[in-house]
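Example record

The entry below shows one chain as it appears in the dataset: sequence first, then structure tokens.
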Amino acid sequence: MLNSYDEYLFYRANPSIAASTAKNSYNPAMQELSLIQFLAVAILPLLFAITVHEVAHGWVALRLGDPTAQMMGRLTLNPIRHIDPFGTVLLPIMLIVLSKVAGTPPFVFGWAKPVPVTWENLRNPKRDMALVALAGPMSNLLMAILWAVVTKIGYLLGAGALGLPLILMGTFGILFNLVLMVLNLIPLPPLDGGRILTSVLPGPMAWQVGRVEPYGFLIILLLLATGVLWSIMGPVIDWFYTLLHTLFGI
């Protein structure tokens, strides 16, 4: 938790320092949380981010003519219908635990079970698949904005029993949604960016890119392990995070 209320006031009086600190360690208080406390703060933003991301895909597909997700009961905010045991549960927890053991700011990402989309049902399949894919990352951007509002409310309430949890939960919500948005926009199948890329490329080139899909997540994990993934994503996430800090005065 915050060392003192004076520290909280210092960061509120020096927003540029607070923003820099937040980018590097999530929040002045985030690194002092125990593993259990961190999981308690992180679980709600994480589940919402992954669940809404998938529902957004299905909802846009429905608007564009494909009711498959609706027929399979996937247009629901019930996270149980979307949970992937590894991508939604094990991987995020493993990354959180590893970061706490290493004493580094957590870099967390994950995924849910993909929402089924029947390509042939879409009114303009090639264009509409790009729109369906884009819906997921855009939902994460909207959620990052909503979590920025939660963070702002926490600051207005002060670093007390109610305000501080909102600040921490909101901060994690912003960062996790930005990570999920930027990660999914990488043009590598089966990520959303890969779907968008194959939708705009000519047929033969799209087919060649699509052949990478069976190895996509293995490539992502390899890039994560070597640090290349963060070198690609980090500057983009920092830009959006700083923008939200500036816009909302947090």
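Notes for this example: The mean pLDDT is 82. The CA atoms of residues 48 and 79 lie 8 Å apart.
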